[in-house]
Amino acid sequence: MAVIDVALAGRSYEVRVGTGLLDRIHAEAHGFLEPFGKRAVPIVADAEARRLHGERLQASFRSAGHAIDWYEVTPGECSKSWAELERLTDWLLERGVTRSDHVFALGGGVVGDLVGFACAILKRGCGFVQLPTTLLAQVDSSVGGKTAINANAGKNLIGAFHQPSLVLADTKCLATLPQREMRAGLAEVFKYGLLGDAGFFARVDEQSTAILACDVGVLEPVIAHCVGMKARIVAEDERETKDARALLNLGHTFGHALEAETGFSDKLLHGEAVALGMVLAARFSARRELVALADAEAVADALARAGLPTEIAALGLDCDGTTLARHMRNDKKAEASTVPFILLRAIGEAFVARDVDLADVAAFMDEQLQAH
């Protein structure tokens, strides 16, 4: 098992990465269970995650004399809504959850975001433990304290910074994921190499087949490396007030626009949108002569080898570049009249560009919609 410390002033927490962690959660999370006494422990779970892993959790809790109170969430971005947030907070209040209690979140990024935000506002803040069951959540969304729901205007526009008290990333869960979900998570793994570690990018390219096959000997160190990178960035810039944490948004400004245009639906998973967004960021960087076009295409080639989408023309969108640029204007990272973009000077060297003209982005997107 790998243990990574997210070192924040006065409230550090651990991310544990290993196989079978859910089978011994009563021991791994012992300190957060004791306050419940005879009360049932609240677990908010993606319905599919509960079907796949609920019995393992139930057996572990039962062995320590704890009962579970389940709240099921419908899979998909539709659950990151005001309506679902209201239902969840009412459910938690009905069960008498206190500020000293911890709510457990079982599932992918949607459940983690929803539960984290609910816990941030419930009685002005209670604790929560992340039990990420997808690759994307294990390497990225479960760590760092960004929690949110979506709004009509865009993705993750309503939220709060609220750190978990513990993250248990059980690699055993990944063997149950469809390949499409694994690939979506792999996009975020590639992101860590692309933004700041060229050697890791090459390593992920070389090991992508083993990662997708859930080779535990490869998975654990890869996940731990990603979490370690994020932990260092979050410790330096927890609330994204400097450029350090902004680098984690590589691919996301372009990607969120594509997600918005596809209605935050299964037509385009978040990780697939990030993959496309990274390719677009690389190609836009080449268009601005920041990197060689060959380097930009090397990014696309690596993602394509892993089975990830690299051409937005293949989405068959009924829109133009101006429409996509308009989605970007609503991005939560927008500052006054500008939108910061994460661009590349090289593979493994990302930076924040604040001089990007959205009209130029719109023209570039028109080219990409018709390319290849």
UniProtKB/TrEMBL annotation:
Signal peptide: none annotated. Residues 185-334 form the 3-dehydroquinate synthase C-terminal domain. Keywords: Amino-acid biosynthesis, Aromatic amino acid biosynthesis, Cobalt, Cytoplasm, Lyase, Metal-binding, NAD, Nucleotide-binding, Zinc. GO terms for cellular component: cytoplasm. GO terms for biological process: amino acid biosynthetic process; aromatic amino acid family biosynthetic process; chorismate biosynthetic process. InterPro entries: Dehydroquinate_synthase, DHQ_synth_AroB, DHQ_synth_fam, DHQS/DOIS_N, DHQS_C. It comes from the Bacteria. NCBIfam families: aroB. Belongs to the sugar phosphate cyclases superfamily. Dehydroquinate synthase family. This is 3-dehydroquinate synthase. It comes from Alteriqipengyuania lutimaris. The gene is aroB.
